[in-house]
Amino acid sequence: MWLWYLAPGQRLGLSCGKVWLLVLLLLGCGFAREGGSILNCPPKCVCASNIISCSKLGLGVIPTKLPRFTAILDLSHNNLTRLRADWTPTRLPHLHSLLLNHNALGFISTEAFCHVPHLRYLDLSSNSIKVLEELLFSQLQELEVLLLYNNQIAQMDRSAFDDMTRLQKLYLSQNQISRFPMELVKDRAKLPDLALLDLSANKIKGLPVAALKGLPAWMKNGLYLHSNPLSCDCGLYELFTHWHARQLSSVVDFREELMCSLPLAKRSVSIFTLNSQDSLNCSEFKEHMLEAYLGDTVTINCDTKVRGATTREWVTPNNRRFPEETSNSTMTVLGNGSLQIRLVRVEDMGTYTCYAVSQAFNETLYVDVMVHNFTQHGPHDTLNTAYTTLVGCILSVILVLIYLYLTPCRCCCRGNEKLAAQPEDSINSSMLSTTPNHNPEAAGRKGSLSHLTASGPMQGQNGKVKPNSTPEQVARRTQKAPRKMSDPDSVSSVFSDTPIVV
What we know:
Blueprint: H1 8-13, H2 16-34, E1 46-48, E2 51-53, E3 72-74, E4 82-83, E5 97-99, E6 107-108, E7 121-123, E8 131-132, E9 145-147, E10 155-156, E11 169-171, H3 183-186, E12 196-198, H4 209-213, H5 217-220, E13 223-224, E14 230-231, H6 234-245, H7 249-252, E15 259-261, E16 268-270, E17 290-293, E18 298-300, E19 311-315, E20 321-322, E21 331-333, E22 339-341, E23 350-357, E24 362-372, H8 378-406, H9 415-420, H10 440-455, H11 471-478, H12 491-496
Parallel strand pairs: 2-3, 3-5, 4-6, 5-7, 7-9, 8-10, 9-11, 11-12, 12-13, 14-15, 17-24
Antiparallel strand pairs: 1-2, 15-16, 18-22, 19-20, 19-23, 21-22, 23-24
């Protein structure tokens, strides 16, 4: 139609090749306006360059014959229920973003991503997915962002995310997950680049507190655990209080939503109030300092939440900066940014400052170091020596008490008195004497008792009659030397104080 507005001389000057080129351009514009058959755009979809949008069309099946140059494919807000292995019969080597959110997907084939190996962004949120099968995403080795929130996921196979070495962000919030997937963060070789893991609003009741403490700060900064029915304990309080003191985004941004259930009460309280007497009365949180002993080798980590920091610089308590050019120093900055101190001294005690610099932002980290003024085994040796001395003293006291109170005679042996005593004085010198030996009056009455014994029947030591005893033997027994008063502290006097009646 534009040819009619040309001058006659200009119409005659056009060559046949130029005319055909102009006709093809006009036809192409017309076809693009009518349905995009030139670009192979699916029916009812909107195509712009390498972007194909088939959103909100009520589709139950994914359109076939998608262009090979498709880079972004939007199939969100439809009625898709299954993602089969043949959803795209041809390979899409340029596709890097696939949006399947807000559908009714309940089944995803393990081979569904064979034809999209270079996918970097996958949105499967707001569907009906319940189970993540074995090796489900293992073919997406270049995927960086995976959105699975607002589904019904209750089971996850441990190998579902294998070989996803470039995955950086994984969103699993608003599901039915009841177990913390520790394998996703513990094994750093499995997901080495994972910096964000959203597990909020699930059914998780317990957390592996000790394992979470060992994670680097940049990973804890992106670990979201709020809005879970956690059980209250003091370990949970210490964990999140430390994260809040470090100003980690996962805690600072959602402080009000970090709640837990008390063991005996059917109510939820803030985790940061567990130190009050109304809840668990947990001990106040204090940052732990790094303890060292004389002569040890100490490594101070610059545990910054800045991931991929390009520069780490240390400042010692003496305002010395490391790394420095001097090579004979006992302090060295390692390849991972940590500061190593060899043969630590008491003078090395204090606060160390780490400056971490990255392209996104910078961070300053402070680490307190306490150096004990003895070697690591010194206090134990001192304790052992003191313990041995104490035990020796106690045993000595016990032996002295045994010697004083349980020995028959505490004084020197009275050998002279034993030699003066006659060997015949066996009856009256017996410990079981009928008359107390320490009574002076008893000594006077002893003679009368002896005379009565002699005039009566001849008896033995136990009151038995000795028929073979002669009068001379009886007279010898009665004629004895006067008995001396025995020592009241001796064993014989102890027994002689109480008369024995036969």
